[in-house]
Amino acid sequence: MACGEFELIQRYFTERQTKRRDVIKSIGDDCALVQANPEQLLAVSTDTLVSGVHFFEDIPAHALGFKALAANLSDLAAMGANPAWVSLALTLPQIDEAWVSDFSDGFFKAADYYGIELIGGDMSKGPLSVTITVQGQVNKDQQMLRSNARIGDWICVTGNLGDSALGLQALLGNVQLSESDSAAAVKKHYYPTPRLLAGHALRTIASSAIDISDGLASDLGHIAKQSGCMAVVDVDALPLSELLTNNVSSDEALRLALSGGEDYELCFTVSPAALGSIESALMHTNTPFACIGQMQSGEGVNFQRDNQTLNHQFKGFEHF
Ligand SMILES: [Mg+2]
User: Fold this and answer.
1) Is the pLDDT of residue 1 over 60?
2) 209 CA to centre of ligand 1 in angstroms
């Protein structure tokens, strides 16, 4: 049976709520009302995903629902913020209840797991797009900015780089993988893990942080620029999975790791004195990490092998 916007919202979003005590008024009034805390900062981030630009039209709705929220949660992780509230604006070409049901399943898989409550949004007709605004909280003076890296700080990344990009190449038919490797890479592409626990653990120790959405080359470049230093990276120290290195040439593995994007890992800097604290803090959250370089005086990002600068220019994803 066909149903309208309000029935769809009621059935697939209002009734599936995660309940938080600090939400005074959720979906259903002109605004959501949440209890603000004077000791904390509100971290807010909005992202729009457009069909044909950020994802393929045939992406499974469940994967789109999960990934759209996970990508936004990753921005909260990069600030050291704890997720609290989310708004969702969905534009659909037509009402397809089975699609909305799958999208909602994927969305709430992430929302329930990470404890974020959907407090409002909008639905309209048009080309498929998803706009999400997440809000989280971080204690005053504990937020991680891109601008606080210092000369001498170590540069580190969580997890592995390039697996999501390998999944995208597999979906595009540009690489031939075994069935199990293809499934593993596509899963990395569709279901990224936002590093919220790691972000929370790092927030009092790391000097700066960013999440890797456009590719390490581009995202580390933001830290270098905003901190007024040069990031020097040893490409042989990059954490690459066997999934990646077994399936593509070493040059292609490097390209996917540095420019592929959508890893949603954290790249952070830490003073040499605090490196030991990072090791124990991340061990407690079960997060693997690797030191890949050091901040030096200068500007930009310099990729090196055996202390020699690589000539290749690595670029991240850019919209325009
Ligand atoms: Mg980000």
Assistant:
1) no
2) 9
